[in-house]
């Protein structure tokens, strides 16, 4: 069998290893990343562009333009997530979580909500792979969320009772619970030839339970035959945050299919910004059969996800958001959560952009800041930006509260 794997970067090495067991493999390094990768499997041929040859199978991520296939032809052409769905063999219960925003936070919150669920549990997000076997251990620091990670989990930790995986670029369609946090603005992929919807919808395929926002019901219901649980306004699960102040605790009040539950959480993270992720995670917990009261009570010791809305209180309040998903939309969400809390708001952005597929649109970011009336806005870490003035650190911003964002990838 001859397989052509298009795109070495987004899990092509994992696919190549699997397919080398069945025959010859050629990998197209379409993003020219071989020089910085050490994981090219022995026996696979790596080329810069697709050869004009016939293969038995061509595999490529959903975000890759069809043009990358070039003159190659094959009996079957599959996206990476479609092939993963054929190869994966999960042993325990599985959850796949995707979305334009909030998927990392939702995954970590769900893992916290499942603290009382017995057995071994695996959590895979862009922050890493974590195993709970009595206590939590870090198995992998930082992580790709390409669908091929599901194969890695299957190979190395396949005997877990519950796995929760953040995925992008498509899901396997084999998870017991498929979750979409939100589609957001349904951004373009594959050089404008497809939309994010084309990748995100795949987690809702197959059998099981689908979880998605009630506000997007008209979009997702037609593409799934699964049982549906919705969250958000008019959804099956709704959450509100009461009494939050920076650094102080807050009350989480949830309505689940007409019943009300509540708990208290610490204040060292921006709790109001987490509300949509808490809703999505609670809806997923319900889908897994976890009692809502137990899921919520497990949040009493939840201190947020590192790098997502961390709050420190000193001479001024600093809210830090450091992750690949920093964007104009995420900043808008953070500011909407911060404005009702009072105080003047300053803003500092470090547009690192390392290892991030979706680059930061500074123009859109500046427009969001203007819409929220943020006058003290700066760039740090580099001086070569025209959109905002430079500042050495958030400590130099004259504001009661500073939102400090860093857009930085992990792998």
Task: Explain what you see.
The protein is α/β, with parallel strands linked by helices. It folds into 3 domains: 2-80, Rossmann fold; 88-235 and 269-300, Mur-like, catalytic domain (UDP-N-acetylmuramoyl-L-alanine:D-glutamate ligase); 314-407. Helix content is 22%, strand content 30%. The strands form 5 sheets. Strands 9-8-7-10-6-11-14-15 form an 8-stranded mixed beta sheet, with helices on both faces. The protein is globular and about 65 Å long.
State the helical fraction: 10-25%
Distance between the termini: 31 Å
The CATH C-level name of the largest domain is Alpha Beta
Summing up helix and strand content along with how strands pair, one would put the structural category as alpha/beta
Q: What's the story with the biggest beta sheet?
A: 8 strands, mixed
CATH topology of the largest domain: UDP-N-acetylmuramoyl-L-alanine:D-glutamate ligase
Widest beta sheet: strand line-up:
9-8-7-10-6-11-14-15
Q: How many domains? A: 3
Number of strands: 23
CATH architectural type of the largest domain: 3-Layer(aba) Sandwich
| Quaternary organization | single chain
Mean pLDDT reading: 91
User: What is the CATH homologous superfamily assignment of the largest domain?
Assistant: Mur-like, catalytic domain
- Principal-axes geometry comes out as globular
Give the count of helical stretches.
Answer: 10
Q: In terms of per-residue confidence, which ranges show pLDDT below 50 for 5 or more consecutive residues? A: none
- Approximately what portion of the residues adopt beta-strand conformation? 25-35%
Radius of gyration over all CA atoms, rounded = 22 Å
